[in-house]
Amino acid sequence: MTASVLFYVQHLWGVGHVYRATRIARGMARAGFDVHLVWGGTEIPGFDFSGMQVHRLMPVRTSDASFSQLLHGDGSIFSDDDKAQRRDHLLKLYDEINPDILMTEAFPFGRRQMRFELLPLLEKATAAKKRPMIVSSIRDIMQEDRKEKRVQESNALVKDYFDFILVHGDQNLISIDETLQGFETFKDKIRYTGLVTPEEKDSEISSEFNCDVLVTVGGGAFGQKLTRTTLEAMSCSKTYPRNWIVSAGTEVSDEDFRLLKERCPSGMRIVRYIPNLAEVMKQVKVSVSHAGYNTVADVLRSGCASVLYPYTGGRETEQLRRAEIMDRQNIAVMLDPDNLTPETFAHAVDKAAMLQTHSASFYLAGASKTASILKVEFDDLKHKVC
Fold it and tell me: What is the largest CA-CA distance in the chain?
């Protein structure tokens, strides 16, 4: 029998985890699972949802990285009636799909703003005649310094509802107990999948993005300081003083993109988006990027030399922790977020160019491993029930 999976994914600010979640979903689909991605985020133009059935809830986002207010895509307030409508739609989808496995992305360690629909969903699942296996899907580095009340809250939810916690990381890079408070109360439920990186492709790599230095900032919501500094940094580099490409991101306004192109020096190109980033990275000398999960996964998959400029806005600690670890292990060079100048930028590029091309000793097939773990645990659980 084909096992069905209801995978709840919600992006509120930034889209990086949607990329990870869809890679995981495709990995499950390739392994034979019937995957239903329930997605409540705003539209991402051209996003690839192949290999899964997508069920869209009323889109919701937040105003900023404080996550203090839920909004519609047009910026209007997401009301209590809107929440009730979304909740009812989600519960109806649960009945229609009747999943064997229920997965939540980040929750109960994140997406706390969505408790209005996730708690009823978990209640419904645990009370169902056919109770599904309930799993949380989390990244390898979590937000640190959570309030004790929040830690106790998430720990209680793990105890009451969740069978397993899938950690999409490799302990050779970092162990989840370093950043996940309360880990010791449910460590027997932890399963490491390895890092979720892009699939290897046999297709020929396009020469369109051939360059010495590639600067990417994800969607671009947080990257304007880095892209603006790039314009002056290229000429300061002793190793690669030309032949740079900057990917400004799809979320940069048309006006800001126009200004970047106007100021672009000779020897540099500005583009909005680079498809198949991990494949393109294989042909560049140095990659410069933020230190988000997906970009680092691309770096590790490609093996290219890397400069990491961690985003540290708000209370964020994840990217700084990841960049420090990779710098310490000589996998990448960290560009100090408190000291970004054209000169420090160029020096980091020159230093990265001296790094040995590494063959990372990390497990990089996290999507496939996720599917394997789910199959084993689901079969075991089904056997116990029988």
Answer: 69
Which residue type, as a one-letter code, is found at position 28? M
Q: Strands 61-62 and 70-71: what pairing?
A: antiparallel
Residues whose CB falls within 8 Å of the CB of residue 150, separated by 6 or more in sequence, listed in order: 112
Handedness of CA 228, 232, 237, 242 (dihedral sign): positive
Fill in the DSSP letter of residue 59. Answer: P
End-to-end CA distance of the chain: 15
Cα separation, 213 vs 242, whole angstroms: 8
d(CA 163, CA 290): 33
Of all residues in the chain, the percent with pLDDT exceeding 70 is 92
Q: Residue 338 has which token pair?
A: 């408190």
The pair of structure tokens assigned to 239 is: 């190793």
In this structure, which amino acid lies at residue 179? T
Q: Which two tokens stand for residue 131?
A: 């109770």
Please list the residue range(s) of the chain that carry CATH number 3.40.50.2000: 4-195+364-385, 207-353
Which of 85-94, 183-192, 278-287, 309-318 has the least mean pLDDT?
309-318
Q: Which CATH architecture has domain 4-195+364-385?
A: 3-Layer(aba) Sandwich (3.40)
Comparing CA positions, the residue from 249, 257, 248, 245 lying closest to residue 284 is: 245
Mean pLDDT of 286-306: 91
The CATH class of 207-353 is alpha beta
Q: What is the pLDDT of residues 223-268, one digit of tens each?
A: 689 999 999 999 999 999 999 999 998 778 889 999 999 999 999 9
Residue 299: Cβ within 10 Å count: 26
Cβ contact 139:111 at 8 Å: no
DSSP labels, 102-141: EEEESTTTS-GGGHHHHHHHHHHHHHSSSPPEEEEEEESS
Find the angle CA(285)-CA(290)-CA(292) to the nearest 5 degrees.
115
Whole-prediction pTM: 0.90
pLDDT for res 335:
97
